[in-house]
């Protein structure tokens, strides 16, 4: 028994060391990728439910590392946040996505671009100036830029947050609350902060047709948004039955695999030419 215990302990130690090594390797590779901007952006269409046409695109980051293969943003974004690399990576995302939206704009497609902003980026004192600078540099109209933040961002430094949002708003930029309903905030911020859109988290949409609690939540979020003059987007829409449900409740927009997975920019250009004939 004693021997076995010792073996187990050694095994455990080795296991921990390996996990730690994996993380160090990933950090090393991520640092390299951040230096070289070795990422891609994919774009997922956002569809106006009434008009049934694409009105926006959400930019989603992709990392395909030579050594580590394809790594999900749900894995490397937290690491980027922990290491501070999210600042450099986030700058690249902002500029790349705005430049892409400007290229579509120049081709005659007025598509809003949704960009995910980490709390760490948002809380930097130079954030607003950075965004303004990127708009100037790329020439994208500010009204086409939508920044997606999570409600947890609004938990800390409320005064600073409020000022940042006001300044962004004054430029004509819009703000969406991502993963709405999953954070720790109380609803009181909705009254106070200048936001434009609520994005209903996909965890509420996934079983909305089978689960009456999810139905109540989704219906209430749509009503709440409309009563406060906010727009509302449903994420993770995968079936036409979901579309009918959302249509019945007067949801404004949807996004999900039913319509399209996130796509590389070249494919999007072809895609919008087919679906949004001018
Ligand atoms: P998110 O912002 O909530 O993005 C939605 C995620 O759901 C995306 O995963 C998207 O590919 C996926 N999705 C879209 N439609 C469907 C659907 O119909 N069904 C299902 N099951 N999933 C769907 P992805 O691209 O893996 O991104 C995961 C998360 O990583 C994002 O969640 C966001 O929090 C973060 N992220 C991605 N790109 C960036 C970025 O550029 N900056 C920052 N800070 N975070 C990012
Ligand atoms: Ca998002
Ligand atoms: Ca989301
Ligand atoms: Ca999410």
From TrEMBL:
It comes from the Bacteria. Coiled coil: none annotated. Residues 23-276 form the EAL domain. This is PAS domain S-box-containing protein/diguanylate cyclase (GGDEF) domain-containing protein. It comes from Evansella caseinilytica. The chain holds residues 316 to 593 of 597 of the full protein.
